[in-house]
Amino acid sequence: MEVKNKIILALDVPTTRKAIEIMDNLSDNLNTVKIGYPLVLAEGLESVTRIKEEYGCRVICDFKVADIPATNEKIADATFKAGADALIVHGFVGEDSAASCLETATKHGGEIFLLTEMSHPGAAQFLQPVSMDIARMGVKMGIHNYVGPSTRLDRLKKIRNIIGEDSFLISPGVGVQGGDPQDTLEFANAIIVGRSIYLDNDPVNALNSIIDSIEL
Ligand code: 3DU
What we know:
One of its GO terms (cellular component) is cytosol. It holds the Pfam family OMPdecase. With 216 residues, this protein is α/β, with parallel strands linked by helices. The protein contains ten helices and eight strands. It has one domain (4-213): Aldolase class I (TIM Barrel, Alpha-Beta Barrel), CATH 3.20.20.70. It has helices at residues 16-26, 37-43, 46-55, 69-81, 95-107, 128-141, 153-163, 181-184, 195-198, 203-213, and strands at 7-10, 32-36, 58-65, 86-90, 111-115, 145-147, 168-171, 190-193. The chain has an eight-stranded parallel β-barrel, surrounded by six helices. Ligand 3DU binds next to strand 8 and helix 9.
């Protein structure tokens, strides 16, 4: 997977119209976006279809899927039918639940990203003690793509060591949450950035500044 400029834009905006306005200005420098609940709950999965069609970019749906296998299958099926290329899936619910998403993704020619450890302070409370085991489970399952935190680089490094150099690791938490783009890219293949770009008065300049600050 080749992520242009190693940046995935998190499109956590309230309307498809706003997402389009942002993408009209930024799409030359991006080929991958992440769409999650903020946009899809407001505008429906149609927003995923629309962004995909309009820009031809890769769309990763961040639904942090964490249900029983039968329900995960339905969630994954609807997501890929809407045009998503990949789906972010929680690992803590166990192998059967993640496998259900993986099988459904494969059926649609799509991919999943296994979420290991999250980037916010609360991740230390329950998730952190099991996050390396989640990464190990992913390796055992043959999962290629992972999500890990840019806010704790010591942990991101450990995740990278577990999943190996050939796996694809993307990392949120850059910018507003405190993570540094270049430092994160020492361990991650691409960074996920949202508010530092779409909340800036000049999103084009914000994106360009991040691109200038990293080694491509
Ligand atoms: O903090 P930002 O605005 O740059 O957005 C980060 C995005 O990544 C946002 O969509 C959030 O829901 C997602 N994310 C995390 O921030 C942390 C995780 O561990 C997983 C996903």
